[in-house]
Amino acid sequence: MATYQEFIQQNEDRDGVRCSWNLWPSSRLEATRLVVPVSCLYTPLKERPDLPPVQYEPVLCSRANCKAVLNPLCQVDFRAKIWACNFCFQRNSFPPSYAGISEVNQPAELMPQFSTIEYIVQRGPPTPLIFLYVVDTCLEEEDLQALKESLQMSLSLLPPNALVGLITFGRMIQIHELSCEGIAKSYVFRGTKELTPKQIQEMLGLMKPATSGQQGKPLAPHDAAAASCIFLQPVQAVDMNLTDLLGELQRDPWPVPQGKRPLRSTGIALSIAIGLLEGTFPNTGARVMLFTGGPPTQGPGMVVGDELKTPIRSWHDIQKDNARHLKKATKYYEALANRAAVNGHSVDIYACALDQTGLLEMKCLSNLTGGHIVMGDSFNTSLFKQTFQRVFSKDYNGEFRMAFGGTLEVKTSRELKISGVIGPCVSLNTKGPCVSDNEMGVGGTCQWKICSLTPATTLAMYFEVVNQHNAPVPQGGRGAVQFVTQYQHSNTQRRIRVTTIARNWADAQSQIQHIESSFDQEASAVLMARLGVFRAESEEGPDVLRWLDRQLIRLFMFHLRRSPFLQVFNNSPDESSYYRHHFVRQDLTQSLIMIQPILYSYSFYGPPEPVLLDSSSILPDRILLMDTFFQLVIYHGETIAQWRKAGYQEMAEYENFKQLLQAPLDDAQEILQTRFPMPRYIDTEHGGSQARFLLSKVNPSQTHNNLYAWGQESGAPILTDDVSLQVFMDHLKKLAVSSAA
Amino acid sequence: MSDRFVKPGNQEHGWNDPPQFSYGSQKDSGGPKRNILNKRVHAPQFTGSGAEMPSPSVAMPTPPRGMNPPPMDSITPPSVCPKTPSDGKMETEPSFEDVQEPLYGALNACRHTVKKQICDDVERRLKLFEDMWKSGKLSHLVKHRMHRLSQDLKRKNWDAADEIHRGLMVDHVAEVSQWMVGVKRLIAEARSLNPEQNICTDPGS
């Protein structure tokens, strides 16, 4: 229905929310029959150029276990200056500063167009942002040089009053004193010995000296800040020295014998970084940025030994329980990740190598804290350099697109409870009346912490309808959810973004068609997909695929089933971790591209047009542009390729052919210029080895198995045993009919 | 403009490395993204009756294998987005003295208030810049952009100068990294001496 599409779009534009259902079934029983739960995607910091923040504190409900924020759904008595909380119905008096409000003079937060509103609040002195570089020096010379240059460049991109620090590692770990003058000193740690946070802080001089009979105590925050100043300094004070220091970094001096890997003590390096921040700046926005060119091979957190003849674990190894270090290393990094998350610090991983680097084990460091994972072949590539630059990109206001120290609290009206969240966050274990016992994703809480977030960060939220069957539709007819996100803006201001949404209840027995027409297929596909990925990460693969087949969302599910998120065949464990990392945090549009890539066809016969992601779209006289989010593929059909090879584009009378070749390149530009992370760029043609990127994504409606069933030769057959969409749908239909019988 | 360009990616070191865009071409032009490549074709509905194969898209006759040339017609297929205009013609190379004068001017102004060690460090880097210029180690683009930066410095357009320094660091890091941080510091120190002169002529703001 056109109206529901508009409704959905307007709500997304205003609130950053997409709900699976836009009419909610009023009874628990009916809700569970819907297969897709009542759920939504929420982008807390969606860019709203038209929404000026207000500079006062939000007004809260006075009931101790409610504290909902005043919003457009609240009933207001302007004369008595009283408002009724729409969540708990408590009557509250307005604060004295609201004495002048009236029907014609309403505060912004009561107006329907401000269902999403942002407050700037004072919460103590502003604290600087911190960037702690943790750099692997076991790289090839050229690679290290490129990385050094990128790091030097980044010093010019950092916010000017940010604090910056440098830890380098290989076999040993060095934490560098940064000063404005004199000789550069560093503290050296062995890469094999695990240290407790207290030991690290002691060794770095961040503890008060122990008096007789007494343990060393941590310094008070301002003393600790003073002591840490040797390791974490304002970039504007040390940029010249740090530039020189980076320029002089050498490869790890320990020689690597033939047949061996370099000894890389990533585990201890991260432990020192996290320990340093823990001891000096807890609860301040900080990013640990790990740059690594290979897997950890020494000390706690090692992923593979140093013998090259022992390859790093593959999915096959994992399934056969043949991955020696996997459990221990994962546990080690999970413990570090949780410590970082508790302190509000995020960890980025920039992993550039031709072989795997241990993302499977280390991914929790970024997934739990909201940090980035960037995966490339070498630091000397434009993919790494430009993706890294975009970490520091600025918005329309010239402000950085990164925010820190986020906490999200969700409140629901009493007919709903929260089952959980899937996204780059951790639980704050906050119990309350809104918390459901049935967990989906990260549940058992109504508050989550997101240590680092961007305007694209999107969380999936799952709800449970708790109203009993046959209970009357609740008074007012609408269920409501409020999202309150507190965070530190990149300009160090503290802000609170409040979004309050409502949807009508509907009686499923009499209004089932209305409920069905309010279904948002796109949002539901992504919500179910995230559930699938969450389960795949915590349970066995094949069970997830069977579960997915029972969720009947047709086309998207077909592509999801074959996607690298669930189908691990053909990807390394690190690659799977990388794709999943991005899938569970991107917004709806990007997530859909990842599930079902977009395909455009260019020809002489008309303007560029979207075409079916199907082998029948591959024709000799077409150029195809495919966007999978991680790759941009430009595929030249057989005839086009022959013309290109013959050089017609160089001849003046074939100018239109030249333009045809250029058209997809121009269209790809906008994506290439803005997407984070930067996609790979594949220019290929019929018969080219890189054509496999396209061929593996399209629906193989014509394979070598059924080619001769076709009357005419059109489209390119795909050599695969993968089922086609048609076969898949037939199978699903049989399944649906048999389970209902 | 000399600060908008695209280079190919590094195919030697990276599989399918994307092209490299200059700093100037990557900045957000503001406003909602055009998101031009965002349409899908919906698959035909699979109803209970008759499992039909999806019909192939417009079946054009394939050209004979003997490779006829492409159509030479006036049909020029437009791309979805308009092409960006090509670069303007190159100006004549600036003289080093022109560039040097505002830089040393700013440095001398700072000597009264800023620590000697920092000023000496900045000067050392300006000398390195001079050496590299005079021995031909700096590219045309870098020289032009440094000329514009020094003009902005002279006119106390701190934000604009800062933005040029950032663009140079991003686009030409190998050439400039050793000495550019000195220029960066110079801009910062000169700015703090003249806080009221913060008039932005930066087109981005």
State the helix count of chain A. 21
Helices of chain B, by number, come to 6
Q: Largest chain-chain contact?
A: A-B, 102 and 79 residues
Distance between the termini of chain B: 18 Å
The secondary-structure element order of chain B is EEHHHHHH
Poorly predicted segments of chain B: 45-66, 82-89, 197-205
Give the class of chain B from helix and strand content and strand pairing.
mainly alpha
Largest sheet of chain B: 2 strands, antiparallel
Mean pLDDT figure of chain A: 88
Total DSSP E strands of chain A = 27
Report low-confidence residues of chain A grouped into runs of 5 or more. Answer: 210-214, 708-714, 736-741
Largest β sheet strand count, sense and barrel closure of chain A? 8 strands, mixed
Radius of gyration of chain A: 28 Å
Helical fraction of chain A equals 25-40%
Domain Zinc finger Sec23/Sec24-type (chain A): 58-98
Organism (chain A): Cyprinus carpio (Common carp)
Domain Sec23/Sec24 helical (chain A): 555-592
GO molecular function (chain A): GTPase activator activity; zinc ion binding
Quick summary:
Chain B: Residues 1-93 are annotated as: Disordered. By secondary structure, chain A is an alpha+beta fold. Helices cover 31% and strands 21% of the residues of chain A.
Description:
- The complex is a heterodimer of chains A (741) and B (205).
- Chain A has 741 residues and is α+β, with helices and mostly antiparallel strands.
- Helix content of chain A is 31%, strand content 21%.
- In chain A, the strands form 5 sheets. In chain A, strands 8, 9, 10, 11, 12, 13, 14 and 15 form an 8-stranded mixed beta sheet that branches. In chain A, strands 2, 7, 16, 18, 19, 21 and 22 form a 7-stranded mixed beta sheet that branches. A 5-stranded mixed beta sheet of chain A has the order 24-23-25-26-27.
- Chain A is globular.
- Chain A has 21 helices and 27 strands.
- Chain B is mainly alpha-helical and 205 residues long.
- Helices cover 43% and strands 2% of the residues of chain B.
- Chain B has 6 helices and 2 strands; from the N terminus they run E-E-H-H-H-H-H-H.
- Chain B has a two-stranded antiparallel ribbon.
- In chain B, helix 2 (96-110) packs across helix 4 and helix 2 (96-110) crosses helix 6 (173-193).
- Chain B is elongated, with a radius of gyration of 26 Å.
- Mean pLDDT of chain B is 75; it is low at 45-66, 82-89 and 197-205.
- Chains A and B meet through helix 3, helix 6, helix 11, strand 23 and strand 24 of A and strand 2, helix 1, helix 3, helix 5 and helix 6 of B.
